[in-house]
């Protein structure tokens, strides 16, 4: 599905069409993609563990935007049953998970700080092969 | 015989308790030098000596009273082992242990023959019993099982010598098998037919050789034990034992055992065997007497004299003189043990065996000299002809008479009589040479003469007792009581008459008492003995002829005799060296061939194992190691990816995901497009 979407998106002249179009699912997707990419870049370039964690939040929220966008009623098929809020539910789960993950990750970071007096993830190479 | 053995053994035990008193405490043996230059110092072996001596007597008595050949053989071997103990009593001395081994081994040679004889008898006759034995049969009736004597000399034929049925059947085994096979259903008929034909077969001479082998085999054992030619070499060496042992060995036990067994076994011996025995005895008596002429060791002279006298006994038995031979055995036992104990007394006093260092001892030890003179006179058979004489006079006369009688019946074998007569002359010469050299004249070695002394009474008393016996043993008391008469009563059934089988005729012994023969024999004995004594006196007492001059004139003969006819050397060359050669060959085969084969096999196994190890190490281990190495290296390589830099990991994840998407879009383009 996503492959198809990508193909569809790639086939459209990107900025021109989007800026002129009314707000649609595609715009949400673009926002999600930008969030995702920003999160990835943040994870990749930040040396501060907290920064990396923030990047992770970004990535997760980028994905959340996608879930919600795809849950749009415009994309529901004919005769679809149910409440049509599957995307929002999953997004809630992701937020929940993100909270739990953030708690665990912060605990790890705190411990790491206790042990190494730093939160520089480049120094966290104790498990290096 | 039993009485003789026990009596002499008693005398010797008493004497030995004096002679061996050194052994009661620690002994320093001056003939044994240890590696550190000191003489051997060892605890005394008094109890050990008497243990062996008693066992020796026990074994000899066992031979005497044994009722069958198997028992005789067992005691025979016991005597052999005891002689080994006693001859090798000073076993630290090399010469003594060698002499003991020599005596034992030479006896084994003879005993091998004896075993053959035993097997021939057992195989053909199935009994080794001398006399008949009674047993209770299955039905309660008494069954008489015939012994060897009854089989060879059945009462039915008046105890005449014949080849027993068992041996005839054994020799005609083919015929017997044919008859038995002809009537398989009726074994009783076959048995009766066989029994009927035994007479014919016997007439054909079947089984003669078997009886001959049996007799000869038994005699072989006696040759070894009684030191007859060609196995006499051990006896002179047996002088290495203590003197009482020599006395016992030479008189009552061991050598007597051989003569005794020939006497005991006499009824079974055929004239052929007896002729062999006679010649054996003649050769022995001549060789031993000539060697005794030149020996200088006092005990060695006596040893060869014993060998020679044993030759007399064997010869006597061989020419049919059963009583004469055993009579001489008894009288000889007395005077030879006397002579040995006297020589022991002399050695005890002089501490040397060499007669050349003695001389003039009659003054310091008169009792020993006197008793020894009695012994010498007895052994040469001295006496007033036809009136009275010492014990040897009677027994030797009997032998001469029987030999003369034999050579008259068998003129071809008259050399036997000459041997006996010549032997009598030689005996007289060397015995008196011994006596003159030892006791008469002036002391030759002052050191020896000064220390000489008469022996203690515990040693002299047996000498006196034996001397008396050496004088009277041959006498016949009024009323007919005498050793000769006792023996005559003990004569085995059937041997009183002469008998013949084949070409040789054994004359009856009573014929030798006929005037013509007896007078000739007595005169011969007296003349030869007298000549011997006179010659000895001329050479060693009156110094008319110097022994040295005689020795120089007859240098080759002298050295030939002094070297004991080179018998030891001949045996060494004939038996010991080939045995060594064979041993060396066998050891060569062992080390070269067998060890080589085994070593080769071991080498091959090692090589094979090497190949196997190489396969294991290279291929099997290699495979495992290569896999392990590859895994290890892969791990090492992969380890590098784990940089520990989280940001790098993120990049990998992103790049990987992108790459996956690109791949998926390229690979599944068609399906996507569809």
Domains counted in the coordinates of chain A: how many?
1
Helix content of chain B: over 70%
> Structural class, from secondary structure content of chain B?
mainly alpha
Task: Indicate the radius of gyration of chain B in whole angstroms.
Answer: 40 Å
Largest sheet: number of strands, sense, barrel closure of chain A: none
Low-confidence stretches of chain B: none
Helix proportion range of chain A: over 70%
Number of DSSP strand runs of chain A: 0
Measured by DSSP, the beta-strand proportion of chain B falls in: under 5%
* Helix/strand order of chain A: HHHHH
> How widely separated are the two ends of chain B?
138 Å
How would you describe this structure to a colleague?
The complex is a heterodimer of chains A (129) and B (674). Chain A is mainly alpha-helical and 129 residues long. Chain A has a single domain (23-123), classed as Helix Hairpins. Chain A is 71% helix and 0% strand. Chain A has five helices and no strands. With 674 residues, chain B is mostly helical. Among the domains of chain B are: 298-491 and 499-562, no CATH class; 567-639; 643-674. Chain B is 70% helix and 4% strand. Chain B has 27 helices and eight strands. In chain B, 44% of the residues are buried. The model of chain B has no long low-confidence stretch (mean pLDDT 79). The chains are: A mainly alpha (129), B mainly alpha (674). Chains A and B meet through helix 1 and helix 3 of A and helix 26 of B.
